[in-house]
Write a sequence for this structure.
């Protein structure tokens, strides 16, 4: 039989080969979160419509995706692939609207962490398809996630409302403004669930990365088409409310959201899922995003409580781990990476490798 030492050496060399990809994923995540903070500052300072801003970012994004992927070339796409991708475009458009509204009302920290609410689909998969022994673990993970979101809504991640604040005298009105409540958190939480749902649909349509990229170009294009009438209606309302329509423009906010927040992050997340087996709704992904959020909160000098944010992130990470895990106790089999974030997927296992 083979000794365990070569296996450990193989794992070490594999981790070393994946180091450049991990660095690339961290850089792309940082750029994406930077674009979120730029978008939040632009929307909060100018009062521009969220739907108009997102639509203006989706138009060049869809054009670039079409030029890069050329879905009309190569093997013809089937109707069983096209129709779900177009439907996924409608879900994507609704996701962008809710996420933008949540970002503007709740701030970047709450909006970014609420994206991981899609892990609740792991609880649904356990109830519908999973084993009985895993249901209570996933329910416990769901409770932990809800507790983390509740603490976030109460302002634990802000210096002015955190119970771990070192400030003695705080303005009572400012405290009230930072405490939102769970009603305001519903919008970004729904956006996170829709984000997870659109990823599940994309994986169900195709597991091949090349075909998935072609279909994603169709999804973003259809999302732009779905968002077009809503954006035009928003523009008409804005033009009626003011005689002279003067929409401020920020090149960095638009370019960063388009290039980093929509285009680059898709390719890097697809690479991380395929090569690093790091899906979006996972504690590893949350850890990377949490580090980037801490840096950006300090750079932008936001109202930020490091201790409160770390506590909320740890509770959320534990909840995600329990809600999306398959079976951590099995050691006699190698499990195939869960390509659906533990959501609505079958538990696929690989037999032990021959020795």
């Amino acid at each position: 039989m083979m000794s365990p030492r070569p296996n450990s050496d193989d794992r070490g060399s594999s981790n070393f080969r994946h180091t450049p990809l991990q660095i690339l994923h961290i850089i792309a995540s940082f750029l994406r979160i930077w674009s979120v903070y730029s978008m939040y500052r632009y929307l909060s300072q100018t009062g521009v419509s969220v739907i108009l801003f997102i639509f203006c970012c989706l138009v060049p994004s869809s054009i670039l995706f079409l030029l890069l992927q050329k879905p009309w070339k190569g093997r013809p796409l089937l109707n069983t692939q096209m129709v779900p991708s177009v439907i996924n475009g409608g879900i994507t458009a609704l996701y962008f609207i809710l996420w933008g509204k949540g970002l503007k009302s709740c701030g970047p920290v709450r909006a970014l962490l609420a994206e991981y609410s899609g892990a609740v689909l792991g609880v649904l998969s356990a109830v519908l398809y999973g084993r009985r022994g895993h249901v209570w673990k996933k329910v416990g993970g769901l409770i932990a996630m809800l507790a983390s979101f509740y603490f976030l809504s109460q302002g634990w991640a802000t210096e002015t409302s955190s119970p771990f604040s070192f400030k003695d005298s705080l303005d009572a009105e400012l405290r009230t403004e930072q405490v939102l409540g769970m009603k305001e958190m519903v919008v970004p939480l729904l956006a996170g669930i829709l984000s997870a749902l659109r990823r599940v649909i994309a994986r169900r349509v195709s597991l091949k990365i090349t075909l998935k990229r072609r279909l994603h170009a169709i999804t973003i294009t259809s999302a732009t088409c779905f968002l077009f009438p809503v954006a035009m209606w928003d523009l008409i309302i804005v033009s009626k409310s003011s005689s002279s329509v003067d929409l401020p423009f920020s090149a960095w906010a638009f370019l960063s959201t388009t290039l980093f927040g929509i285009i680059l992050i898709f390719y890097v997340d697809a690479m991380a899922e395929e090569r690093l087996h790091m899906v979006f709704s996972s504690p590893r992904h949350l850890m990377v995003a949490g580090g980037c959020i801490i840096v950006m909160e300090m750079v932008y000098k936001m109202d930020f409580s490091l201790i409160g944010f770390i506590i909320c992130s740890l509770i959320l990470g534990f909840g995600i781990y329990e809600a999306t895990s398959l079976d951590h106790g099995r050691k006699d089999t190698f499990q195939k990476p869960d390509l659906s974030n533990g959501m609505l997927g079958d538990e696929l296992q690989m037999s032990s490798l021959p020795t």
Remarks:
- The chain has a mean pLDDT of 81.
- The chain has twelve helices and two strands.
- The CA atoms of residues 65 and 217 lie 5 Å apart.
- The first strand starts at residue 334 and ends at 335.
